[in-house]
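Form 7-S
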Amino acid sequence: MSESTLAPITKLSMRARINTNLASTTYFITGTDTDVGKTICTKALLQAANEQGKSTLAYKPISAGCSQTEQGLRNDDALILQQNSSLQVDYAAVNPIAYQQPIAPHIAANETNLPISLAAVDQGLTFLQQQLPQCLFVEGAGGWHLPINKHQLFSEWVVANEMPVILVVGLKLGCLNHALLTAQSIEQSGLNIAGWIANHLQAEMPYVQQNIGTLTDFINAPLLAEIPYLENIEQQSLSQYINVTFI
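Output:
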């Protein structure tokens, strides 16, 4: 890649290696792809903020891949977010738009004739913000440019709400390109990348630390955490891996 291709992404390797202060506000959590660990990383952020005495909530406005229960559709990721928030709200407030099939949400919306309503997403965000959490984490679905219909991307909604973004990088072959393209797109949209998280997807990845070092050099944001590959990760406390002070 030429220097001009990555012009918005500058080198801040020293900044990425120090403890980072994050303001108590609303953050959007996106990933380099689907299944890169956005929920696990959001859980870690929630646990860290909770341990630092901050009130927390999380929002999963759109989910696909839900189980039918007596209470209605339930998404495992949204349940994890609800369980790890210090403020309690009903499930519908955490995940207002849910589809049963584990497919792209806009396809699920078309298949069920239940279109994704950005008005409902806005209302849900407003309701959670009215609960006055000090930290509110909004988890996206899939990657940054998630289609919600034939004409709109969910990233456009994030831009309209001017949310700082936390990028989750799933460490695997190909993650460098995915991460740099995603970071570049976020920056070109005018949003601030508050930080990024390196999430290990494999027990052993060749040259993994060299990959993290490369991303540290090129992503214009601090490295907030490196989450190791863990067995039964859903049952573990992850706050120890978050290198953040919430202020």
